[in-house]
Design brief:
The chain is α/β, with parallel strands linked by helices. The chain has a single domain, classed as Alpha-Beta Barrel (TIM Barrel). It has 12 helices and 8 strands. It has an 8-stranded parallel beta sheet with strand order 5-4-3-2-1-8-7-6. Helix 10 links the parallel strand 6 and strand 7. Helix 7 runs parallel beside helix 8, helix 8 runs parallel beside helix 9 and helix 11 runs parallel beside helix 12.
């Protein structure tokens, strides 16, 4: 029954648009996307969550939102030349308290602007815990990487078309509130949407393929002055027939192209070259896993060479414990620590994990943006 309700939703939405007599806003042209990108500095930053938040709910809920800590940490980022942050939101925050959430977003943007940082906001995410809950979040699981991150929407919502009007209100509400705000860099509508299937929803990607185009349409209906995107994260995105249905939606709908790469520099360069034939700006919105060969030393010079934005995972080590590697899911680092941090740039007190990395980031960003 749920699948039938979901499948009929798209025709109903199309009928509503026809009745209203309004054509959906168009994707940005290549020219508009490239003109926008030419006006930006070289974009360098991190995927950001404060050190005292285990996930996006704890970051943004009124009881745990911490502007003082955010101000301090974004100051550290500014000091090394970073000018953007990729920041995750959550649909439950809008459901819980839309006016309050909007005020906290505005507070965050005011702090970020003070540090000359323009965030790329992420609205949905297909990774990790599939049944998110509002309220106090559980403490970190000792020795485990990112042990409290939550999906948005949760699987029960994703599979229930009756919930889609609530998701539509969230997308339109958040983007509509900041659609012409120069403090916002852009909108990453869905993080790794086809990261699945999930054991609790075997046909998860089926629902994603239905909902993702609607999310783009809802976002475009607000006529944002900032670009829309959704990042690719599989292995090969050259213009060939083997692209997944979700990847085709991402490539066909994104104003600017974004991707993730945690591999060696040869892998990073390969992905950049696969995306160049699409003739749109390219932003890497996740990279830097030291023990996997993805480091600031190897990737950041390549990103500068190809004029690709570079947003690494993790700014400050904290409750997400993303300094621990992915294999901690199978073997928690409780009695010993990995020989090298996986993600993150700073300790919780602001000390750099590696001063050489700090010097490199500062040097390359200064060199690139001095020409702007």
């Amino acid at each position: 029954m749920r699948r039938w309700r979901t499948l009929v939703l798209l025709p109903l939405l199309a009928l509503t648009t026809l009745v209203a007599g309004q054509a959906p806003p168009a994707r940005w042209s290549e020219a508009r996307a490239n003109t926008w990108y030419a006006a930006q500095p070289w974009l360098v930053g991190a995927n950001y969550i404060p050190r005292d938040a285990i996930n996006e709910l704890e970051m943004w809920q009124a009881a745990t939102f911490n502007p003082t800590e955010i101000d301090q940490e974004l100051g550290w980022a500014q000091a090394i030349g970073m000018n953007t942050m990729r920041v995750f939101l959550h649909d439950l925050l809008w459901q819980q308290d839309a006016p309050g959430f909007q005020r906290r977003l505005d507070t965050f943007l005011t702090i970020a602007a003070r540090h000359h940082i323009r965030p790329l906001f992420v609205l949905f995410d297909s990774c990790w815990e599939p049944f998110p809950k509002l309220g106090p979040q559980h403490p970190p699981i000792p020795g485990v990487h990112n042990s409290g991150w939550v999906q948005s929407p949760g699987l029960a919502v994703l599979a229930d078309a009756a919930q889609y009007p609530r998701l539509e209100a969230y997308v339109k509400g958040v983007i509509g509130a900041f659609a012409n705000d120069p403090r916002v860099l852009g909108w990453d509508l869905w993080n790794e949407p086809d990261n699945g299937p999930d054991a609790k929803l075997k046909d998860k990607n089926h629902y994603v393929e239905i909902l993702l185009p609607q999310v783009f349409a809802w976002a475009r209906s607000q006529h944002p002055s900032q670009p829309l995107t959704s990042g690719l994260f599989h292995d090969d995105w050259s213009p060939k027939d083997h692209l997944t249905p979700t990847e085709r939606i991402q490539l066909d709908q994104s104003d600017v192209l974004t991707f993730h790469n945690y591999g060696w520099p040869e892998s990073f360069e390969k992905h950049v070259k696969e995306l160049q034939p699409y003739h749109r700006p390219i932003l890497c919105t996740e990279y830097m896993a030291r023990s996997h060969g993805s480091t600031f030393d190897t990737i950041l010079p390549l990103a500068l060479q190809y004029h690709v934005a570079a947003i690494n995972w993790g700014l400050v080590n904290g409750k997400t414990q993303t300094n621990l590697p992915w294999d901690s899911w199978q073997r928690p680092y409780v009695t010993d620590q990995p020989p090298i941090w996986f993600h993150d740039v700073f300790y919780g007190d602001g000390r750099p994990y590696r001063q050489r990395e700090i010097d490199l980031i500062r040097s390359l960003t200064s060199q690139a943006n001095a020409k702007k």
